[in-house]
Specification:
Layout: H1 2-21, H2 33-37, E1 56-64, E2 67-74, H3 77-91, E3 111-116, E4 130-131, E5 134-135, E6 158-163, E7 167-171, E8 174-178, H4 186-197
Antiparallel strand pairs: 1-2, 2-8, 3-6, 4-5, 7-8
């Protein structure tokens, strides 16, 4: 009986420890943008969001290992955890496509086309104006046709226009948002965020 009770207690202890490790630790550190620049995000100090986020002191984005990364900075940790949480949820809001190909919330500033209408090549033209991938130009008129180049419609090859940033983390007074690379799930993106945060002083 004692052995069974001991085993159950050990199992519960291990289970509770593994559950708590999934949650990011709350950090009470105030970082500057100079601190954030040490993460190695290229052009971070040059690129600003157009949107003005309430109480945010900085809202910038850059590139890190083939993906876009954004940093929104607040003066206080409380503002990051309240206002920053709301902003991050708005900027990463993924919705079901109801109208055209729009799969992002109304406040998302940076979007990206994901998926394509032609099975692998988002730049492939409609077969109705050629044969296969060959485009006939000799007597073809584009006036009044169904081709819409670069308009964001499904006909230009973009199935879903989604938020650029899908995952975010609040760390101290910083909100970090990242773009996924193809085939990445949320756990992979969280590892990338961990890797970035490890570079903060």
């Amino acid at each position: 009986m004692r052995i069974s009770l001991s085993l159950i207690l050990i199992f519960l202890l291990v289970l509770s420890c593994s559950n708590s490790s999934d949650e990011p630790l709350q950090i009470d550190t105030i970082y500057t943008m100079n601190d954030a620049s040490k993460m190695g995000i290229k052009n971070l100090m040059k690129n600003d969001f157009v949107t003005e986020f309430p109480e945010a002191t900085d809202a910038k984005w850059g590139f890190w290992k083939g993906r876009e990364v954004a940093i929104i900075r607040y003066e206080s940790i409380e503002n990051a955890r309240t206002l920053g949480q709301k902003v991050a949820e708005e900027q990463t809001e993924l919705i079901e496509v109801v109208e055209k190909n729009i799969a992002h919330g109304p406040k998302v500033e940076k979007t990206k086309c994901r998926g394509d209408a032609y099975g692998g090549n988002p730049y492939k033209l409609s077969p109705s104006i050629g044969m296969g991938e060959i485009l006939f130009l000799n007597k073809t008129s584009f006036k009044g046709s169904d081709i819409e180049m670069g308009t964001g419609s499904v006909r230009d090859g973009c199935v879903r226009r989604e938020p650029m940033f899908i995952e975010f983390r609040i760390h101290g007074n910083l909100v970090i948002m990242i773009e996924p690379l193809p085939e990445e799930d949320r756990s992979a993106m969280n590892k990338i965020i961990d890797e970035l945060l490890a570079k903060l002083p």
